[in-house]
Write a structure and sequence with these properties.
The structure is a single chain. This protein has a single domain, classed as 3-Layer(aba) Sandwich (Rossmann fold). It is built from 8 helices and 7 strands; from the N terminus they run ααβαβαββαβααβαβ. It has a 7-stranded mixed sheet with strand order 3-2-1-4-5-7-6, sandwiched between helices. α5 links the parallel β4 and β5. The radius of gyration is 18 Å and the shape is globular.
Length: 217
């Protein structure tokens, strides 16, 4: 028998070499040359971007996360809410899977946009279909993280970021494909072909990706 703590656990940062490639591709497409990775954890995404030539600095509230990031060669800073950087110090600020964990979300976003010159890139779990999935006894693994304090749908996420940015582009990402739930049968391969060719479109997406441009006041 398992306990509640076996099922509902806090989220842990990705380790270098085990990180999610889609986040790196998203950042590589939109980030400038200098990057601040807020809530960097072990520094997996900053290290991946730095390997392609970007200048990256990581920051996090957890010193135990920062130690291995620093030993891997990433410049890091221990922070709480206020960042020790001047205004517009970085082209881009990353907030990957961070703000759903932070009670003081406005303060974090205010600082992120303060130190960004160009844009802030944000990813969060997509909660838009949680009620529908719950009603069918299905949910995302995201929703099993015990330390999530905010849940976002595309409209609310966009409205939140518009409080700090002039232009906000939010996209649904990381779709769920129905053929994942079938055995390697004829039905599996037929559905796979239909989705891969675009004849069928995915209905559910597990993450939201946002590119928020900095106000030029």
């Amino acid at each position: 028998m398992r306990t509640r703590d076996d099922v509902y656990q806090p989220g842990f940062p990705a380790k270098p070499g085990e990180h999610y490639g889609a986040f790196v591709r998203f950042a590589a497409k939109h980030a400038g040359e200098s990057v601040l990775d807020m809530g960097c954890g072990y520094g997996a995404y900053s290290l991946a971007l730095a390997s392609s030539g970007r200048r990256c600095i990581g920051c996090d509230v957890n010193l135990e996360y920062l130690k291995p990031a620093l030993s891997s060669g990433l410049p890091v800073v221990a922070v709480d809410t206020t960042l020790p950087f001047p205004d517009k110090a970085f082209d881009t600020v990353l907030l990957f899977e961070v703000i759903e964990h932070v009670p003081g979300i406005e303060a974090i976003l205010k600082e992120a946009f303060r130190v960004a010159r160009r844009n802030v890139l944000v990813t969060v779990p997509n909660a838009e279909d949680v009620d529908l999935l719950k009603g069918n006894d299905v949910t995302y693994s995201h929703m099993l993280s015990s330390d999530h304090v905010h849940f976002f749908d595309p409209e609310g996420f966009t409205r939140l970021l518009h409080r700090f940015a002039t232009n906000v582009q939010v996209e649904r990402g990381d779709p769920i494909y129905p053929f994942w739930f079938l055995s390697r049968s004829l039905g599996y391969y037929a559905l796979r072909v239909l989705f891969r060719t675009g004849l069928l479109k995915p209905r559910f997406f597990t993450r939201l990706y946002a590119v928020a441009s900095v106000r030029q006041d």
